[in-house]
């Protein structure tokens, strides 16, 4: 039973490793760093909301919105 979770985790990790290799060949490192940081924050917020049932206050929602706007602007002009 536990080996199934190990194999699933290994496959997910391997896919992200190959994805990083491809992305790092094609995108500037400074741009990639910003994408990684903001996407990690957004993913952790979603985990907090849907898995841990946390709530957000107005300032956190504004901050997440600005992070998404910065990703859009960076993607458009980078």
The overall pLDDT average reads: 89
Strand content bin: under 5%
The succession of helices and strands, N to C, reads HHH
Please mark out the parts with pLDDT under 50 across 5 or more consecutive residues, or reply none: none
Q: Name the helicity range.
A: over 70%
Structural shape: flat
How far from one another are the termini?
A: 45 Å
Annotation field: number of helices: 3
Structural class: mainly alpha
Textual characterization of the structure:
The chain has helices at 2-26, 29-50, 58-77. The chain has 78 residues and is mainly alpha-helical. The chain is flat. Helices cover 86% and strands 0% of the residues. The longest helix has 25 residues, at 2-26. It has one domain (2-77). The protein starts with a helix and ends with a helix. Helix 2 (29-50) runs antiparallel to helix 3 (58-77).
The gist of it:
The chain is mostly helical and 78 residues long. Helix content is 86%, strand content 0%.
Can you lay out the helices and strands and say which pair or pack?
Layout: H1 2-26, H2 29-50, H3 58-77
Helix pairs in contact: 2-3
Main attributes?
single chain; 78 residues; mainly alpha; 0% strand
